[in-house]
Structure formats: structure tokens, C-alpha cells
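User: Okay, second chain of the day. Same drill as before: sequence in, C-alpha cells out.
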Amino acid sequence: MLWGQEHYWFLYFDVPAYGADRDCVKITRTWRLDKDLADDTVLAALSALVRQYESLRTNFLQDESGRPVQAVRPPWEVAFEAYAEGDASDIPAVTERLAARAFDPAQDRPVRFALIREPGKGAWVVVTAIHSAVDGQSWTVLERAFLALLDDERDAPPFLPAREPREQAELDHSAEKARYRERVRAYWRDRYLTIPQGMFPDYRPAPVGHFNGYTPPSPYERVALRSRALSFAAERVAAQRKVPPGVVYLAAFGAALSSLSGNERCVVSMDTANRADPLLSAAVGCFFQPALVVFDVTAKDTSEALLSKVFRAVVAAQRYARYSSLEMTEERARAGHARGMNLRIGVTYNYFVQAQPEHDAAPSGPPDGAGATDDFVIDKAPIDWQDNSADLYLAVETGKDGVVLSMHGHTSVTNADRIARTLRAMGALIVGWADSTLPLDAAMRSVQDQLGFPRREFGPHWVLVDHTWVDTGECAARLAELGGVTAAGVFPDETPDGGTRLVAYAVGPTTPDELREHMAAVQVDQPSLVLPHWYVVCAEAPDTPSFEGWAEAAVVAEGDGLPHHPVPPRTPQERALAAAIRDHCPGHPSDMATPYLPAGGRTALAPRVTDHLHAAGFTGIVPADLLGPLPLRAVAAKLTPTGTARKQ
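Assistant: Same drill. C-alpha cells below.
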């Protein structure tokens, strides 16, 4: 399977986590026909697209080992699945009708077509496809080819040379790419071992919606900034610093992100087309993947240093943006287990170029009025994107009228007022770079304060450990919830190598293993919780509940809390989970004290495990529950018998 297809293939099995039936992630586009054409003519052009592009007739199966694979089907003649006479106002209803019936990636055709005909004025072709089959650039390729097929006077072939997704997948999996795959794995492994648990450490409730809608009201607020002068300023800075304009906006976003989150280390997911190869520029398929951009914004960094850092980080991230999302999920789980945290990439950035702004972008000097913030228009905007795994999303879109910066923020970490202030400060930062009113050698902390970037400040119980802000008071409170524990405290402690670790102290009839297992189970309801690295059971609580007081208390037992022997299943739910894992993951120890993936499970087999459990009469978990830091005992505790077991 093509690397870019894996993520969306897996989501088909994970959608029930959000209360819906299984369905593929779908995307829709509408193509305008300005003249009346016979239905047969339009259908013939659409059928030609299906014949030309394998992706439009590909199903996604699993081989005997559970690995997802592509199966290219023979060409088929297109028929409209919806047909109406009307106008543009009918597009939403027709789109909904096309997408209403669920797509099964293993059996259904991956694309559907509809026609809305406006007599005497042309028509609209509505196309809905599963995301595993097409990405954003594919739509451009398809529309160009479709219109060329309908143009009797065309002077160029409708189809350009291109590599098919099947051919690219064979290349990606080939022996000659083995060294590249290992470098990619090393890049992601290093990032997973050094990034924060999340940019925003606040508690997040379980999501109620994902790609297929949400339960109102939306947990997001969105604000947009529009400006022509800002577009020119970003281009001028880009020309001066010899970096792409998208890097300039991302550097300003980094300045905002470090201030909003209170964390110097910024982690941003950024979609990458993965089409540098000329044979992929005109290809149809799902080639894009999120790149992982990581850079630090320290108080002493200058703007010049920040721009250089971000540019280098983007280059590295894009170099390693062709990867197996299934395998990187396993790397993330192993790193998270080793660090005692549920790693989450909660910040996304995308840069879109729709058209070049209509002004002279020469670096010699701005047009009248450019370089000022007077033309900034900032308004609250409707929600047009939602993914509950995200905390913050910045989309930068350039067009002939300038640039639009659109920021979505989850209400658990920000609000519309803070977003508006952030966007204004980002714009002022870029304009200041362009007109030299903000020297590039000024320290970022002073620049952030000068421009009014909203800043996150943490209370006295918060500490920065392993690049992550941790509320030690909350950790201690959750530790004290374990039965028999009468007192608890959690504190940072310096390690011999100069690092910092979290040490948990507790009084009661317990052990380090029990303390860690309890804290790991708490992550079911509080996924942002970071587990202490060391556990100390004391004979009695100190008179002064400080780190110094606990450190002098008499010790009964201490250790890292990790079990030294496999823990067998004991409850009916644990035995059912262990049986399901054994059946589909031969050799897996089914250790109830260890998460599924770090113990040797595979991401691609998680749907088979949950399907097995459902057939055995248990519900309550979805594949994603097996991919995080929860020990299997905590996963099994979520299972509920249904009383409707089917024969396996």
C-alpha cells in the first residue's frame, strides 16, 4: 500500500470510536461545465478518467499476514449515482446524497459521480471519493484532464506521463529504498523521544466527533486575518532571507505557539505533497503525508536565528515525510511507553498558494501602504474544519487579494479573543521584519512581549520535565486515589546526567509496581497525564510535605514500577482480550501490565483484534485503544459483555 493511503485505510476501522458506523474518510469536489453537453459525452469523459487512473478503481484489502494491500480492479463504465435539474444551490444536497451510503474500501468503487443540470446554462459534476484514492493535488489533475477530454479543440493530450500509486508503493517498499526507510524511522524515533507529550498539557475530554461531524456546539473557535500588506511583507522577508514564504509564516506561528503554550519546543504537523518526483506531479492518488516539524524558540533566540531554525526544521521534516504511518504509530507507542506519556501531535500548519497576490513583490521596496498593519481585517469566522485530535490549526492561504491567516483553536486551550490577539501579533511580527522596525537581532522574548503575544504562565505545582509541563499537584492527587494510600507527593529530581525525572512518594500498603499500574490506568480518563519515572513507598508521611521532607522519610520499597514478569489475564475481559491478541498476533505475550504495541503488537492487526472481541461478545473498545500507552489490563477494563457472542 502507498504510505499516504495507510492512515485513511486505518481510519475506516477506527471511526466507530466517535459513534458512527464504519465508513471511509471522504472528500468531494464540484466541476463546472459552462455549456450544455449530452449526458453520454460527460459520462464518456468520466469513464476515460477511470480507465486512465488506477486509483479510481482500487480497493484496499489485507493479505494473510494482515498487511494492507492495493487491489486494482478492471475499468468500469461510469453512471451517475445522483441526477438533478437545478442550480448551484442544489450542490450541498447532492453532495450529501453521494456520501450518505458508506464506502467499504475492500469492496466498493472508491469514487462516485453525480450531475446537476441547469437547462441552457450548463451543469455541475459532483465527485465524491475516498481519501485513500485521491489527495488535494489529484483533484487538480483530474479536473484538468476531464475538461481537456471535453474540449474538441484541445491542442495537448489530456493525460500527462505519471506514476501510478501501485508503482510508487512497489518502489517505496523495494530493497533499494531500505536505507532511506531506516533513516526515516530514525528521524521519527528521535523526535518521538524528545518532543513534549503535547504542546498544551491541559486535560482534554474524549472526542465526540472526528472527520465525520461532531455533536454541537463545536469545541472549536476560529478567527481569520485578511491583509494585502502582510502578503507583500512575507514575500519580502522570504526574498531577503532566501527561504520560502511558508517558512516565514511558520516562524511567526512558532513565536506564537511557544508563547501560547509556554513550551520552548514547538511541534507542528505540516502536510507535505510528496510529489517532488516529476512522475508524481500529474499522478492521481493519496501521496501527501503530514511531516513532523520540530524546533525550539528560546527566550534568547533572535528573529534571525528563529527563521534559520524553522527553515532547517522544515527541510528535515519534508525529507523524511514519506513513511509508513502504521509503523510510525508503533514507534510513537514505544517511545511514549518508555517515557510514561501519551504522545499527541496537537498542532497543525498548512500553507496554500491559490494565486500570486496582485502587486509587485520585488524586494527593493513595498508599494504604498505596505509594511503597515492598517489593512489587517480580523473577524471571527465559522468553523470549516474539525479534528478533535488537534489543539490548534493555522491555515495560511495566499490569493490575488492578499493572504488569509485562519486559526482554529480548541476551547480547552484557547478562545477567540486570544486567537485574534495572536494573529495580530503574528502579522505585526512579519511586517516588522519586512520594514526593519523589528531588528532581526532582537531577542524573541522581548519581541513577543512588545507585540502582545498571549503568554501561558504555569502555577507553582507545574514543572518542566522531559520537554513537557507536568502538574505535580494533579499527579499526587491521582496517586492518592489508589486504595490504601494515605499520603502522596510528586516532585522533580535531578538525575546524575543533569536531566530531570519525576519521583512519586506514597504511604500505604502498596508497591512501586501497583503505583505505576494505577497511574497508567488513570490515562484512560486523563490522557495528558505524565507518569512519574520513579516510585518510593514510605513508612510514614513527613511532617513537612516538601521534596526535602519526603526524601528523608523511611523507605519501604522503591523502583521504576515496571513489572519484571508478565502479568497473566485474570478477569473474563482480560482473558477475552488475551485470546483475541493470541489469535491474530502469534507470539504476543498478552502481558496485562504492558501496552499492546510495545509488547510486540502490530497496528495493522488492531482492527482484527477488536473485531474478534466483538464476535466473542464484548464491546467498548476500538482499534485506537490498543495503540496508546494503556496497559492491556486497563484496555480490558473498558470491555463490556454483550451476551451476543458469534461462532468464531
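The chain has four domains: 3-163, 215-270+289-315+346-451, 462-559, 572-641.

User: Thanks, on to the next one.
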